[in-house]
Design brief:
Number of strands: 11
Order of helices and strands: EEHHHHHEEEEHEEHHEEEH
Largest sheet: 6 strands, antiparallel
Shape: rod-shaped
Strand content: 25-35%
CATH topology of the largest domain: Beta-Lactamase
CATH class of the largest domain: Alpha Beta
Length: 265
């Protein structure tokens, strides 16, 4: 952990090896000076340890960092924050830092100690996650089939195609259970509730499922759909991804063709 100490004047008294590696500035060149400020910034400006060592007003300290710091939850009189430092490294670095006052037995303020952690990798990983989320959200919304995300039998997310298919312009689809958007019985005469429980048991056994299902729209009309289920985990919660394709017209065509065949026979 990169660590340095300043006295009450703001002069550096300690500059450890991790600080040397982080900033590229040797301890011998900085101890006894005020050059630590230039090690982090392109211009000479006070760092958090300087402000803590000078007993700066909390509002002044927070304003100095543009609201990017706060009182420490674990260190009395300490502050912590995180910011991007373009001067460090080839492309700049994100640093998380904590500064705490140093006092003697009489509670006289002698200076401050600041510890620094390089959080650049964490920020890069977070940016990559956000980029993937944006990409998958685009795929989710641009799909030609309706997609429902189901957790504990309740719809927790859906795409625009699902809203259109279920005619959910006025009534919310998210928050409803699958039973809420299903008729009491399916076309084969079996109870929708019993069928859902059966498919839940298959889901628990992690069996791949693709089946036909009759749904109710928000306007009380119905449609037949081909449904395929897959499961995934969002944090600790197991969820079901249901891809719903309206096959009502296709089924009507099949029935019409069969009827026509009978007539021809």
């Amino acid at each position: 952990m990169a660590t340095f100490v300043v006295n009450a004047e703001g002069r550096v008294t300690h500059w450890n090896r991790a600080c040397e590696l982080l900033t590229g500035v040797r301890s011998s060149d900085i101890v006894g000076t005020f050059k630590h400020r230039e090690a982090f910034y392109t211009e000479s400006r006070q760092v958090m340890a300087d402000l803590v060592a000078s007993n700066a007003d909390p509002a002044q300290l927070i304003a100095h960092y543009g609201g990017k710091c706060r009182l420490s939850a674990s260190i009395r009189g300490g502050y912590e924050g995180e910011d991007f430092f373009p001067k460090l490294g080839r492309d700049g670095k994100w640093l998380s830092f904590t500064a705490a006052p140093l006092k003697n037995a009489d509670s006289t303020l002698l200076g401050a100690i600041e510890t620094i952690q390089d959080t650049t990798a964490k920020h890069i990983a977070e940016q990559a996650v956000r980029a993937r989320e944006t990409q998958y959200r685009h795929l989710f919304e641009s799909a030609n089939d309706a997609i429902l995300v189901i957790e504990d039998g309740e719809i927790v997310d859906c795409n625009q195609m699902a809203l259109a298919l279920f005619k959910s312009s006025g009534k919310p689809l998210v928050g409803l259970s699958i039973l809420d958007v299903s008729p009491q019985r399916q076309p084969d005469g079996l109870s929708s509730k019993d069928q859902i429980q059966h498919k839940r048991r298959l889901y628990i056994r992690k069996e791949l499922q693709c089946f036909e299902w009759r749904f109710l729209k928000m306007d009380a009309t119905w449609f037949d759909a081909e449904v395929s289920l897959s499961q995934f985990h969002e944090l600790e919660s197991p969820q079901i991804l249901a891809i719903v394709r309206d096959v009502t017209e296709r089924k009507k065509m099949i029935v019409a063709l069969r009827q026509r065949e009978k007539e021809l026979d």
